[in-house]
Amino acid sequence: MKIIEKVEAIKNQDLTATENLEQMYSVIEEKNEEINAFVELDQARAEKVAKDIDERIKNGEKTGKLAGLVIGIKCNINVEDLIISAASPTLKEYQGSYNATVINRILDEDGVIIGLTNMDEFAAGSSTETSMYGPTNNPNALGHIPGGSSGGSAAAVAANMCDIALGSDTGGSIRNPASHCGVMGFKPTYGMVSRQGLLDLAMSLDQIGPFANDTTGLALMLDVIAGYDPYDTTTINKEFTPFIDDTTNTSLENTTVGVVKEFMEVTDEKIDGVINNSIDQLSDLGAEIKELTFEDIDLGLPTYYLINYVEFFSATRKYDGRKYGERIEEVCGPEVARRIQIGSYISQKEFSGKYYNKALQARSLLRNDFNDLLKDVDVIAGPTVPKLPHKIGETIETMDMYAYDILTVLANITGIPASSMKAGDVDGIPVGLQLQAKPEEDHKILSTMSALENI
To answer: For residues 344 and 316, is the Cβ–Cβ distance under 8 A?
Structure first.
């Protein structure tokens, strides 16, 4: 049953919101001890919301787009009265005093928030191993990382613990775990979704987006959370056509798909084989395949991490232990400490020109060059992550961990929309196909995903 079909079943009373919630709780009780996707559940409030939805449907009252769907939320997005820790001991007792804009929009459309999902500490990671709650296991490749930093959200959807989950994507933190866990993940155009209420990692790069097992789940959530927010000045002030309309596409006639040679060259051969099969499917659906070259690929990671370090250092200055939480430097893990230390160093006046300002110049160059790359194509297709996920607990060098992001950071640097969907498996481990498009052409990505999904 597709997500849109489940909503219709709930609205027609073939399935109640309460029954849907109970089914999800039963899966969580069975699997969460092993998977560790959820770090806090909100059972009493969820049951009350589900019961209210059922009563309103019974009384013939109107219900929202998400009526009765069970939603997981990454634990760096504010939900009132829950512990919004960002998986860090810094905020281990910080109770959300308000709802983020995306949370209010979910509640307004009758989504049932079941709880908070695991993540890398302060979203600084690509494996969900740095969480104070312990690592999350990959439901579709047990013993391996689920990816990060939104690994708990991806794992929750992959394990059927919720219908849809929210994550945040700063350099691939939605797409990376979507690829490793074999689900769909979507990073919207920067500014399409409000970040008000998100504990930021790097404010010029962060974007909230959904995970689901099918395109109707992504589309329903995007139709709810996308749109202008007066409390977030970075949001785009325009009306968007419904994303749900993009989920019935069966043809890619008159669509040009770009394939970047360098993206395939940095990727493991076995993964390339799976991705090439997906590109053949795009061609079979009527798409014209166009080979592209992007020689600036090596600029992506250093540009991204230099900006990330400085913005993260700035964001963490409020965690000084005076108003709430602990002083971050005294309790944080090694990866968070590394980013704070480097960010502090390169923020100093004598070094900012040498590092940070150069990174901003490189960002402008990358944005211009990537816009040129997208000029004559509708979407770019390629691998989401260049290598398979390592085993939980395996020692990984810092630069090897950062290398997971080489193909995803470009979308954050340039602000364009990007997604990941399952392309196949390598050695029994899911592999994701990444799709990218011009700014505000998120619909083209979802439409392409739908065509592949409906084969």
So the answer is: no
Look up the CATH architecture of domain 3-248.
Alpha-Beta Complex (3.90)
DSSP bridge pairs for 257: 289, 379
Over residues 265-312, the pLDDT tens digits come to: 999 999 999 999 999 999 999 999 999 999 999 999 999 999 999 999
Q: Which of 85, 149, 179, 450 is catalytic?
A: 149
Residue 352 pLDDT: 78
Dihedral sign, Cα of residue 372, residue 373, residue 377, residue 378: negative
Active site residue 391: no
DSSP 162-196: -SEEEEEESSSTTHHHHHHHT-EEEEPPTTSB--T
CATH architecture of 256-300+356-453: Alpha-Beta Complex (3.90)
Residue 352 annotated in active site: no
Is 26 catalytic? The answer is: no
- Which of 6, 74, 187, 422 is an active site residue? 74
Residue with more model confidence, 35 or 352: 35
pLDDT score of 30 more than 90: yes
